[in-house]
Amino acid sequence: MKRIGVIGAMHQECEYYREQLSDTRHEQYLDIKITHGRHAGHDVCLLESGIGKVNATLATEWLARSFQPELIINTGSAGAIKGGARIGDFVFASQVCHHDVDVSPIGFAYGELPRLPVFYQVRKKWLNLLNEVANELNDVHHLGVIATGESFIYQQHQVELIRQRFPAVIACEMEAAAVAQVCHMHDIDFLILRNLSDVAGEDAQLNFMEYIEQAGRKSTELVLTLLAAISSD
């Protein structure tokens, strides 16, 4: 049995997951909805954080201090940047970065903050297990860099700028690097897995509204299967 934290930004990314937990109880921290429950023998704490890095930071810090999980999973939706990736595919982060951090004029790499790395690495043991689960489910998935920023990416020039700065990027969203940074500072393992609700720069805002519920449900199903696999492992 493990203590596992799960963070999703939006109601559509959390509601189905909330329904699948047993022995639930609820509380609230600021505007963050918190659900305690159990699944596959694990103690699970699900946080509906709200959109953006500040909300994700608050949620992750609350988990680190109040729940003390062994693993934090950040899940939900993302916009594809990798060529050939389609709505409904999964993206798994091997690394996460901030695509909107720039203190390069004073000697740092683009995306780097003082005393912190440009890229936050996901532990291979969790990635290997996640890949095994996705392969068993025949889910199409892509592995690479997921880039985080405080903007919804819907214009092609935004996509090209992110690609130019981070050539290995496969998707973008608005919370993952904040989750990873807090986990890094607390030495907590993390996983970032997202289902694609849109392709960044290609009618992204319209597709996002149409497919966000599908992305949330598919992400939840994968997380639930992963938790069962962690029990078996």
From TrEMBL:
<keyword id="KW-0326">Glycosidase</keyword>
<dbReference type="InterPro" id="IPR010049">
    <property type="entry name" value="MTA_SAH_Nsdase"/>
</dbReference>
<feature type="domain" description="Nucleoside phosphorylase">
    <location>
        <begin position="3"/>
        <end position="227"/>
    </location>
</feature>
<dbReference type="Pfam" id="PF01048">
    <property type="entry name" value="PNP_UDP_1"/>
</dbReference>
<comment type="pathway">
    <text>Amino-acid biosynthesis; L-methionine biosynthesis via salvage pathway; S-methyl-5-thio-alpha-D-ribose 1-phosphate from S-methyl-5'-thioadenosine (hydrolase route): step 1/2.</text>
</comment>
<dbReference type="InterPro" id="IPR035994">
    <property type="entry name" value="Nucleoside_phosphorylase_sf"/>
</dbReference>
<dbReference type="InterPro" id="IPR000845">
    <property type="entry name" value="Nucleoside_phosphorylase_d"/>
</dbReference>
<keyword id="KW-0486">Methionine biosynthesis</keyword>
<keyword id="KW-0378">Hydrolase</keyword>
<dbReference type="GO" id="GO:0008782">
    <property type="term" value="F:adenosylhomocysteine nucleosidase activity"/>
</dbReference>
<keyword id="KW-0028">Amino-acid biosynthesis</keyword>
<protein>
    <recommendedName>
        <fullName>adenosylhomocysteine nucleosidase</fullName>
        <ecNumber>3.2.2.9</ecNumber>
    </recommendedName>
</protein>
